[in-house]
Design brief:
Chain B: InterPro entries: RNase_H2_suA (IPR004649), RNase_HII/HIII (IPR001352), RNase_HII/HIII_dom (IPR024567), RNase_HII_hlx-loop-hlx_cap_dom (IPR023160), RNaseH-like_sf (IPR012337), RNaseH_sf (IPR036397). The complex is a heterodimer of chains A (about 160) and B (about 350). By secondary structure, chain A is α/β, with parallel strands linked by helices. Chain A is about 25% helix and about 30% strand. The chains are: A alpha/beta (about 160), B alpha/beta (about 350). The interface of A and B includes residues 25, 29, 59 and 123 of A. Strand 3 (about 25-30) of chain A pairs antiparallel with strand 7 of chain B.
Chain lengths: ~160, ~350
């Protein structure tokens, strides 16, 4: 099975910027949503909970959120699959529907904090960078020298 | 090209002119003060209907000197639509005559027209404005839903009591010399009375069922609350952009066929209802369970920590039947909610 991501630098630059919300709920449905009228209209700043904290509600459930940027060096992409193949082995193709550099993160009745799963998971960005960064010979030698130093200091 | 620009500028000027005109109209109708029945609607309409609104009338000078009685009542507790309104009214203990002249009696016995007349009199007639003051809190349906759906649930009774005590406190802060407090309640009076006495130990407090038909000062509060609730529904503007002719959504009681139809016809697949609706009412919940997308919220707080020490059998669990070794995910990733995704 191969998965094709159907976009290039050109249509990435051209594609429209999306207004995205990260919701603390699973919505069992697919389709357009009246986000502007039914949701964005009700977003309020709640400075009493901290700077940048926003409040809103979803189906009566209180939400607290904040505007977040996509991590440095990353871009947010929304990819869509027009029809998912029935068999797992067939090739798949995902189409680019939009990009985002910012989104609104929402918690269910909790001020956003470092305890949120989303923020904890962001450590992946650092891990990925550490794993994929090329190591130069100089770095390597410096590392070896440092290790020698350390072993000397703590006999 | 310059022609086109000209036209555009003209257009802009026109819209600016129109805006100014509208502003002038608004200024003409002062929406910050309620001086009669007529000014009640514009006042409510000028406030955000997803938030609570408090209004206090001017405090008559006699109420600052003479000891006063204060009545508390609510309107719109049961309906699935619209705000719940808490009302208080107060007057000196020796001003009972004014209340009688107004015709304050059980607000539910009065017709809507009669209530409107009394409310107007309270705000315009000299004999009333000189000794009777009042205040209301409009508790928005959005606030009701979000309070009841908090992680630590806050019941409607708590919302009610907080509102009642808040209004009494505001009256005290405004300088009303309160001596006696009368409260109408639907629930058990004893608990409520105890709570009020704890907060306001210096007042003579009476909590009773059907107090609005027994004590004229409670009737007055009840009329203020009921008239405010009725007007709040009349001037309701949907931020969702819905337009409903004459705002005809019925009484809001779940049994009302007009309300039932409104609920059935205005379901948004994702967001459920416009925020005129109290989502926490079972009528609303049931309607959504059938017709809107299923929605499941993260409620990790309800999970109980499961810990019973390491099981001995753990050591036999590392392989599948075919002998394949199952590798447990690294704790580093697990704790950070990271996992492999092969399917999407």
């Amino acid at each position: 099975m191969s998965i094709t991501l159907d976009f290039n630098g050109k249509n990435l630059a051209k594609s429209k910027s999306l207004d995205l919300h990260y919701l603390p709920a699973k919505v069992d449905g697919d389709g357009e949503a009246n986000v502007e009228e039914y949701f964005n209209n009700y977003t309020r700043e709640a400075a009493e909970f901290g700077t940048g904290v926003l409040t809103n509600a979803l189906r009566g459930y209180p939400l607290m959120g904040e505007r977040l940027k996509v991590p440095e060096g990353y871009r947010g992409l929304v990819l869509q699959e027009t029809d998912k193949p029935l068999s797992e082995s067939s090739d798949r193709q995902l189409r680019l529907t939009g990009v985002f550099d910012e989104f609104t993160y929402w918690n269910y009745d909790k001020v956003p904090s470092n305890g949120d799963a989303y923020r904890q998971a962001l450590v992946m960005a650092d891990v990925a960078q550490a794993l994929s960064q090329p190591i130069s010979e100089q770095d390597l030698e410096a590392e070896i020298a440092r290790n020698k130093e350390n072993t000397k200091e703590s006999p | 090209m310059s022609d086109r620009e000209d036209i555009e500028i003209k257009k802009e000027n026109q819209t600016i002119d129109e805006e100014i005109k509208e502003d002038e109209d608004e200024d003409f109708k002062d929406t910050t003060k309620i001086t009669s029945l007529k000014s009640l609607g514009p006042f409510i309409a000028s406030k955000e209907n997803s938030r609570n609104t408090v209004y206090l009338s001017d405090v008559p000078d006699v109420c600052k000197d003479k000891p006063c009685m204060l009545g508390v009542d609510e309107a719109g507790r049961g309906p699935v639509l619209g705000p719940m309104v808490y009302g208080i009214s107060y007057c000196p203990l020796d001003s009972k005559k004014a209340l009688e002249d107004l015709g304050c009696a059980d607000s539910k016995q009065l017709t809507e027209e009669k209530r409107d007349v009394i409310f107007n009199d309270i705000n315009t007639k000299e004999y009333a404005t000189s000794c009777i003051g009042w205040a209301v809190e409009i508790i928005s349906p959005n606030t009701i839903s979000t309070s009841m759906y908090r992680r630590s649930k806050c019941s409607l009774n708590e919302v009610s009591m907080d509102s009642a005590m808040g209004l009494i406190q505001q009256a005290i802060d405004a300088g009303v010399n309160i001596a006696e407090v009368y409260v109408d309640t639907v629930g058990p009076p004893e608990k409520y009375q105890e709570k009020l006495l704890k907060r306001f130990p210096n007042f003579k407090i009476t909590v009773a069922k059907k107090a609005d038909s027994t004590y004229p000062i409670v009737s007055a509060a009840s009329i203020c609350a009921k008239v405010t609730r009725d007007h709040a529904l009349k001037v309701w503007k949907f931020p969702e952009g819905l337009v409903i002719k004459d705002n005809a959504f019925g009484s809001g009681y779940p049994g009302d066929p007009v309300t039932k139809r409104f609920l059935a016809e205005h379901i948004d697949l994702v967001f459920g209802f416009p925020r005129l609706v109290r989502f926490s009412w079972s009528t609303a919940e049931n309607a959504l369970a059938d017709k809107a997308y299923d929605m499941e919220f993260d409620e990790p707080d309800t999970e109980k920590p499961k810990y019973a020490g390491t099981k001995l059998t753990k050591f036999f669990k590392g392989t599948t039947k075919s002998g394949e070794v199952i590798r447990e995910e690294s704790r580093f990733f697990k704790q950070r909610h990271l996992g492999n995704v092969m399917d999407f």
